[in-house]
Description:
This protein is an alpha/beta fold. The protein is 61% helix and 10% strand. The relative contact order is 0.08.
Amino acid sequence: MTALLHSADDAPDDEVPHLDAGDPTSTPSVTRQGVREITRFVRMHPAPFVWSLVGGTLWSFMVVGAAFLLGVITDRVIEPAFATGVTASAVLWSVVALFLVGTVRGLSVVIRRWFGSVTETRMQRSLRSAVVDRLLTMPMSSYRRRPTGELLANADVDVTTATQMLMPLPFSLGVIVLIVISLVSLIVADGVFGLVAMLLFPAMAILSRRYTERVHEPAALVQAKLGNVSAIAHESFDGALAVKTLGLEQAEQVRFETAAADLRDEAMGVARMTASFQPVIDLLPSLGIVLLLLGGAWRIDTGDATPGELVSAVALFGWLAFPMRIVGFLFESIPRAVVSLKRVDALLAEPVDSSAEGSGDAPVDVRLPAGPLGLRLSDVGFAYGDNPVLTSVSFDVDPGEVVALVGSIGSGKTTLVHLLSRLDDPDHGVIELGGVPVTELDPDELRSALSLVGQETYLFADAVESNVRFDRDISDDTVAEALDRARAARFVDRLPGGWHTVVGERGVTLSGGQRQRVSLARALAGRPRVLVLDDATSAVDPVVEAEILAGLRSEGTTMLVVAHRLSTIELADRVVFLVDGTVRAQGVHADLLADPDYAALVTAYEDDDEFDVEIDVEIDVDDRTDAGAGAGAGAEERSSPTGEVD
């Protein structure tokens, strides 16, 4: 049996068919939706489910067999023992028969539980893999629409809840078999016994169906409010610095408590329904036993039934009490599973980023030319919904050239660099890299040739070298070279463990400038031929920034630099001036100063830079010993010849 765990039922994790993620009330029956989900799950992992069903069905036959055996033993062993006595062989036969039936029944429980767990865990693995694959491949627009807390709930709570009904399912199907066999055997044994069963079993079915339909909408609200609580918690934790520095702890607590109270109220409503449903399910088999005892005593008195037949009937109804609880749990799970799976399917229905590997939109046989690469943007336009951000943007960056992209806040600079790396695709126009439209490039080809480094850096709670290597097949020499080119080696060497020092979550134990340089080193380690810097050195002092850019220029790297510092702009060969999503002017910095808007913009930045550097130097001298105190990251020695400040 164990060999079946590795059989062909293992559906590939990326082949997860999903249902229509529409309104949960779009179909008339929640039970019908549950059956569709069950069918879907069984198709994905049939072998362990079939074995668990075999165990559940075998258990049902053994329960009926045990009840029948008790009846026979009552009539042929126990009752005669009080009248004429029985032989030792008859007692021994009874004990052996009960032992064998009990052993097989126990084995059936093991089979059902083991393979039921295998089915559930495999289904969870498949769903989670599909969710993670979609999270990695869906476009940035999908992330903008969905809170991070909701995505976390989709990958965790929703997947778990959607598969909760798989564990009781084989047992519940076995109970259906048990009910059918019991009904037939009771009718055969005595008509009165069969009549009691025919009244009881439909009552349980109707009650379960009514409960399922009533609890569906409240269960949907519980799942939605659970996602809301997760989203608020994630925002509060992720924004802990802002919450603490602004003294908003009380406000965040109130916001979370309000959402938690809404979740509690909805969950209590579902709990009240369950509290009413479960006792009735427990009561019905007991009520059936009472009716059997009354009717059975009368039938025995009239000679139409034997004590053994009554014992057998009572035993069957007694066995039904616990299984019906499991069936009740199944019916409780179905509405929540339907809602959770619809939430998962809504995520899986998100489009795949056309630049994602394996999306099928980009041919893999197109290759970039060797040597330095240039960029060309022709009539590029982009909008976030109905809000246009870029309009007819056109300019070139020659191979090996350094171009500064200058513009005020909201002019579309960051959106433009996102389009270059295909985090989004333009609504119209063409972006070419090395003369090849980026939409025709294999994603790996594009990512290896062009690297984007943003102002907002993200470092993992791992060693510095792991953050630079980033699971790529990169040698230690390449890591060291990248750190040196990013001017990060000077502070990394002074860390307690060198580049093996583990930085805090998001690199919190490093200063802003240090994080930016490690992030830049991560990009440089891939040896890109085009480097796009979106204000990626804004936290680094101008002297070190000049060193970094000059070093990259000397190696012939094509660079597009989003810049606001005059010192950075002056290092560029040309400047592209962006105003309200359009190219206002482009050319040499000295020539563009004739544009009063451009001159006012760079002059304002220049004044701010001079003020910032002066203040930063004062703070650095006074607080140099405190800058990296936490994880031993340590402040850099600011007395270096560069006069470096972060």
